[in-house]
Amino acid sequence: MESESITSVLKEKRIFKPNKGFVREAVIKSRAEYQRLCKQAEKDPEGFWGNLARELVWAKPWKKILEWKLPYAKWFVGGKINVSYNCLDRHLATFRKNKAALIWEGEPGDSRTLTFQDLHREVCKFGNVLKNLGVAKGDRVAIYLPMIPELPIAMLACARIGAIHSVIFGGFSALAVRDRVNDAGAVLVITADGGFRKGAVVTLKEKVDEALKETPSAQKTIVVKRTKSDIVMQKGRDFWWHDLMVGASDKCNAEPLDSEHPLFTLYTSGTTGKPKGVVHSTAGYLLGAMITARWVFDLSEIDTYWCTADIGWVTGHSYVLYGILANGVTSVMYEGAPTYPAPDRIWEIVEKYKVNVFYTAPTAIRALIKLGKEWPLRHDLSSLRLLGTVGEPINPEAWIWYHEVIGKKRCPIVDTWWQTETGAIMITPLPGAIPTKPGSATLPFPGISADVVDRNGKSVPLGSGGYLVMKKPWPSMLRGVWGDSERYQKQYWSDIPGMYFTGDGARRDKDGYFWVMGRVDDVINVAGHRLGTMEIESALVSHPLVAEAAVVGCPDEIKGTGIVAFVTLALGNPPGDKLKDVLKAHVAKEIGQIARPDEIRFAENLPKTRSGKIMRRLLRDIAAGQETVGDTTTLEDYTVLAKLRQEED
Ligand code: PRX
Question: In this structure, are strands 58-60 and 80-81 parallel, antiparallel, or unpaired?
């Protein structure tokens, strides 16, 4: 665990109470109400979740709320339900029929508003398009799109017919697309001729073309025309979205699906070289996303809500799309870069659509701070009433800036801790009920049994550091790793017996507040995105000139963590700056720009234990320019450290 962040948060003493005006209108209004919910959930977890699930529309009621055979949970067993129906159809019989479901803003300044009725029509039509191309219930569909309305339309259409979507973030490379398509055995890829970012076109179809050379299961694509770029369409394999939609019927039955039917898989990095496909269910996931969205973002009927996350990450799945639409609330979606064409684009959008609830990542806040407060000050941000953050610990300085410059000291901030695997927010303030402390995600959501424990699963005393775990199953928890149940067991349920281990270290203060310190495994969090160091190492080693590589994180002012790679070259290859660029580009090609190392350092040898394990801890110190602290007695060759330090000079 990072000792520096522990000291910095330990010093944080400020407490912020929600103002009276906010509390009066809030969904959950007091600590007592929060505690009542927690008590109910503790006494009767099944009753608690069951009551909440009753407001969803079920095609067939469940027989049993929970079946728990560690580590496998089934929720709402025997029930049948459809996510698309619950996000769309059920609103159509209400005044929400003509309410905006999605307000979309393109980077060039174009925009589109889709009401619940509009979205329903598009989703039904696209559901039929998928069926006409032979996509059936249970088939996997890969979606590799920019942030355009066709992305949620495609996801909801899959959900409607029971196809399992696997969204691949648009920043991933052709090889990453290939690997994800193959792992999921996807039958179809939905993509676009490109997307706009920072005024330029991001290519996607070319990458799909390259990927599809080696994806036996997927031999069809549907292509959205977004940028009008010149792309090659292969007859009989590639179909234009708009052509297929012309003749499609707008009547498409929302398939009643088993509660446990997989809604989607989403790939995320772990401690091995290979990303894992996290599997989420239909009913439990929907319930988790819906109820957390309502209580954490304090959603009301008249809110305009904006989450800046890309739908390619779990945050976008749960809190741009499913959780928000399930509540019948308007979700804003933006295509491009936050600072294009000017550093105030974000604030311009907030002002334009009168956004009330705004959810973003600490890395974005830090980048915006750097641009200067004159940019937000140019805009009327008075519509904002609640702010949120996710993805990494927020440093108190960034929290205070967010609170003062954006929230004008009026808006509570919800620092939400969760993961791809948890499906929904787990540790968070409920903004009308829980006073906040900058840097702390505060307390568990009602029904979530988070704790900080030692290696044996014993709770550590308040104030001590330990491992962040969940002690009981929850409805939106992952149901497994696609095609690899062994990895599911090993990764999440083996380190600490009988509990779900998050991979994070944490501490609880004297008030029981959780302070998440970051990963304790070989995963780094770069700009709020999770990357496995092994994954980057494998990419480096796949280059013919590289013999060995070790990747570590180092503090970065904006991204939180930067990527430093220590590389040993194959014998006889001279190191040089040019080769550094080649290797950086190689990683970007293998994984995507997000994994591109910030720094490459050539090393004759890497520090290893006698058993051959690379001592990353030492490399982390070197990368951060710190003296080596802690035990080095297991180091095999002491001269390695000295040589690595010389490299720096
Ligand atoms: O280390 C924690 C960090 O992000 C990890 C989860 O990453 P991912 O699955 O990509 O999902 C990110 C968005 C949900 C966690 O294990 N993390 C996420 N939120 C916070 C956080 N760390 C501290 N505070 C948070 N609010």
Answer: antiparallel
Q: Which atom of ligand 1 is the closest one to the Cα of 313?
A: 10
**CATH second-level architecture of 20-82+277-516?**
3-Layer(aba) Sandwich (3.40)
Class of domain 84-255: alpha beta
**pLDDT digits over 28-71, tens only?**
999 999 999 999 999 999 999 999 999 999 999 999 999 999 99
The pLDDT, as a whole number, for residue 344 is 97
Distance, CA of 546 to CA of 558 (rounded, Å): 29
Please tell me the distance from the alpha carbon of residue 514 to that of residue 129, in angstroms, as a whole number: 47
One fold for both 20-82+277-516 and 523-648? no
CA of 470 to the centre of ligand 1 (A): 15
The arrangement of secondary structure in 523-648, i.e. its CATH architecture, is 2-Layer Sandwich (3.30)
Residue 394 has φ and ψ, to the nearest 5°, of -95, 130
Which residues lie closer than 8 Å to 456 by C-beta, 6 or more apart? 496, 497
Supply φ then ψ for residue 469, to 5 degrees: -130, 165
Residue 414 token pair: 């919800």
Say if ligand 1 is within 6 A of residue 2 CB. Answer: no
Say if ligand 1 is within 6 A of residue 501 CB. no
Judge contact between 566 and 603, C-beta under 8 A.
yes
Ligand 1 near 128 CB (within 6 A): no
**Dist. CA 311–CA 151, nearest whole Å:** 8
Largest Cα separation within the chain, whole Å, is 73
| Angle at 182 (CA atoms; ends 177, 183), nearest 5 degrees | 100
pLDDT of residue 9: 57
**467 Ramachandran zone, left/alpha/beta (phi>0; psi -120 to 50):** beta
Tokens standing for 14? 């400020």
Angle, helices 31-43/45-53, rounded to nearest 10 degrees? 110
Per residue, what are the HEC states of 172-232?
A: ECHHHHHHHHHHHCCCEEEEECCEEECCEEECCHHHHHHHHHHCCCCCCEEEECCCCCCCC
Show the low-confidence residues of the chain (pLDDT under 50): 1-7, 649
The string of DSSP codes covering 264-294 is: EEEEE--SSSS-EEEEE-SHHHHHHHHHHHH
Distance between CA atoms of residues 105 and 149, nearest Å: 9
Could you tell me if 373 and 344 are in contact, meaning their C-beta atoms sit under 8 angstroms apart? no
How far, in Å, CA of 326 to CA of 85, rounded?
Answer: 9
Where along the chain do its domains lie?
A: 20-82+277-516, 84-255, 523-648
Distance CA 424, CA 288 (A): 6
Exposure class string for 126-156: b at 16+ Cβ within 10 A, else e: bbbbbbeeebeeebbbbbbbbbbbbbbbbbb
- Report the distance separating Cα 237 and Cα 220, nearest Å: 5
Q: Is 445 in the pocket of ligand 1 (CB under 6 A)?
A: no
421 CA: nearest ligand 1 atom: 9
Q: Where are the beta strands (DSSP E) in 557-645?
A: 560-569, 599-602
Rounded distance from Cα 274 to ligand 1 centre (Å): 19
Q: Give the model's pLDDT for residue 244.
A: 98
